[in-house]
């Protein structure tokens, strides 16, 4: 506004005239159609919609073309848009699946192509030939299993004669031609895939039905498959995206299906995984389990799918295709040595016993005698990392470590109190104090209090810029903060200031930020800014009576971490708390629950030697002796070990 006031004389005549407004009106009218199509594609993102939308836009361009000649500037913009559209319109000709989506749609079929492209019948003929080639090479000769054979019954001589006669009669007219030249049928609110999944269509077109289901399960654009598959490394760190055996047991079938479809598209082949001869699943049975999903080991018929009405026909078909893919994996190689501890045979033997589930009191005595000392303090100055599954302990330990780090660095400490807004009514003093002390966790990425000292390690708690690897679980060194002028700082001592509000941003650095160059930022750094998060009343916080929003930095100090955050990391010095994630009250004492068997192995396997491990508290017998992974995991591992043994015998 100041600049406008100072230069109002020069710019007062710079205004839009009648012609400018008319031109803006033409641009708006032209682009409004694109907006409508974009909204519709987001709502009805199916393969058959792509070509029909492109046909409509082609008609829209043609209709606007004559009017575009009346304005030179509008025509220039229109011409550039036309060239870009033509480029992508012609690309659809290279992928016959788009035409297949039209031909196999019960309400469109070949009639649609003949009507829309009546001025170019040669194109229609070539398009139909391309789809027919897919039908002939991939589906027409497929041998459907006979129902009697599936039930284990042998066909007698009369049944074999009858089958031959009827199958010959059914092949008088090709299924593909019989369908595409048939009459158009309205399907109402159904999708084409839902129509083809009906039992009636399987009976009328048993082979073509397979092709139609495969076609309509292909993502119309590669964005979704690339997001899940190709972009996985950019979005999720390797230690979060690696597939453990439990993940294979409960793997997301749709992810495997999307990977398969993306590889088919990239390789230009309908064979499994685009014809790639070797596909590797790698992982560890003794890492943390993922969120449970429908098991990829079972077909959809063996699973209840009506929970919350969240699974549709598309998901069930994709699950079955992924299940069929999984059954084709036969070669298994099992590695049972913990190589991180290769330099310490004693630790390596302990880890192997834990993997086998045979650890006993001898192992308990070993850990407590070698790694625990009563009253020993945590030597933060050595760069040790504390691993604890209890959030409350982690919050307190990080505060203690930050104070120690400040003394060691002799730097200024800034304490940022996250901004809070209460939704319904003002809280009581007790509720406000408890909320201030409530740190971050898996559902709330913003801590109530963030203590900053330059050079401290931090871990990000939220997927902020996935392409730049600024994601949940990523570790950084915090170099500096950019202060927000709105909340003033209050100096409470010579080297400590308190800010009632978050900073405008925090400057982070790591190996992942090397060669980053943002305007106005130091080289090799990235900026993390505050975010707001809603904290709703939950049973685990009985003291909270009102919903509240919290604004602050989605990161926290990384001197102490949860067992999940250190998974896959190698730590030279580590302090472990082998306890469960919950606490119970026993005779007025707070007692942690039993250590999770996966946490037990993950924590103990982070260090290279027993000498590098310190125990925060003495290991209880219940946390180690007899603490095994669930029975279904043991069965899954045994099944794969049997396959590995068979492979070993064959190779010998």
From TrEMBL:
Pfam families attached to this UniProt entry: Dimer_Tnp_hAT
Domain HAT C-terminal dimerisation per the UniProt entry, residue ranges: 191-250
Gene Ontology MF terms: protein dimerization activity
InterPro entries with a match to the protein in the record: HATC_C_dom, PIF1_helicase
Designated name of the protein: HAT C-terminal dimerisation domain-containing protein
Annotated source species: Fusarium oxysporum f. sp. raphani
